[in-house]
Amino acid sequence: MTELSKTGAAVGEPSPSDAPSAFLEVRDLKVHFPTDDGLVKSVDGLSFQLEKGKTLSIVGESGSGKSVTSLAIMGLHRLGARGKNVQMSGEIWLDGKELVGADPDEVRKLRGREMAMIFQDPLSAMHPYYRIGNQIVEAYRVHHDVSKKVARTRAIEMLDRVGIPEPGKRVDSYPHEFSGGMRQRAMIAMALVNNPELLIADEPTTALDVTVQAQILDLIRDLQKEFGSAVVLITHDLGVVAEIADDVLVMYGGRCVERGPVDEIFEQPQHPYTWGLLGSMPRIDRETSDRLIPVKGQPPSLINVPSGCAFHPRCPYADIPKGDVTRTVRPELQQVDGGHFSACHLSQEDRTRIWTEEIAPKL
Ligand SMILES: Nc1ncnc2c1ncn2[C@@H]1O[C@H](COP(=O)(O)OP(=O)(O)OP(=O)(O)O)[C@@H](O)[C@H]1O
Ligand code: SF4
Ligand SMILES: [Mg+2]
Prior knowledge:
Helices cover about 35% and strands about 20% of the residues. By secondary structure, it is of the alpha/beta class. Among the domains are: about 70 residues, no CATH class; about 90 residues, no CATH class. It has an eight-stranded mixed β-sheet, sandwiched between helices. Strands 4-3-6-7 form a four-stranded antiparallel β-sheet, covered by helices on one side. The radius of gyration is 21 Å and the shape is globular. The N terminus is likely disordered. Bound molecules: adenosine-5'-triphosphate, iron/sulfur cluster and magnesium ion.
């Protein structure tokens, strides 16, 4: 078992013989931040797998640990003053290499080439005072021993690929000379310049208008097809999930409460929180005012996580399982079917009945 050490490094490094066959495998990942108010358990025992050529969508409300998970995979969690004392444990295997216990320099070498990330805010990934083209050139030359000229040609080609008009000219623009959508495209060009095998897109389109959103998602999909990359897509938009994900992972309070193939998550969801999320999904066949029914109540504190099932203070079905079980025993993920898992004390009969009789007819 890997334990949290005081320095935040993982104790008891896994041996290469533990290497999984999946391209990306996260095992019992914990990312905790000591703060003046207490230990913030942003990610608290997360496990999942992802194969090349597939898209995993991570969904869950604000503060559920989606971005912290992505940053941990990328090895970026320690950057910045707030992440200084981060405590991290578990295992992250990328293409046979374990990253939690790895030397940060080794992880840095993988960034760009093996894994890249698209952030919600392009300005967080770009330097405001350097020309866009130069930033893409630098990103390329970190991993390729080529002249600036060759790299510039590659940068122009990438800008063209992401739909920037007149890329030969725009390559010399500064980030502030681009519109929000164009900056997002340029950041995607930068993230994809080395054909990363793993792309993590964290709310890549939230700030953009609907047309540009659709174009950017198409772009991610096309590039994924072309290079067979694995994609982790974090989004609040379940419409996007339905369209492009192969698998879905639902996070609540730093843990996975349900995961499985996209069709099963939409057609036979097993967890009351997932039902709540689906109820809040926009529907094109209804008026806007009917669309969003947010899950009632507040997200859980990550310092004083509710006992038992962390969702119990908000769950309309918390009294159905016998005794005090939902308030005292934390439900573990149980296999529902194939790759479908859910963490809830309700019996299968109760879940099926509630979903088919109470929830599904209202969606
Ligand atoms: N460096 C840090 N120090 C302390 N707490 C942190 C730190 N980074 C993140 N957190 C906390 O961890 C929790 C999870 O944050 P995270 O950014 O992963 O949420 P998220 O699911 O991405 O939410 P959103 O949908 O709003 O982007 C939040 O409560 C956040 O305040
Ligand atoms: S374990 Fe209980 S409280 Fe938690 S989701 Fe299931 S029914 Fe609701
Ligand atoms: Mg986030």
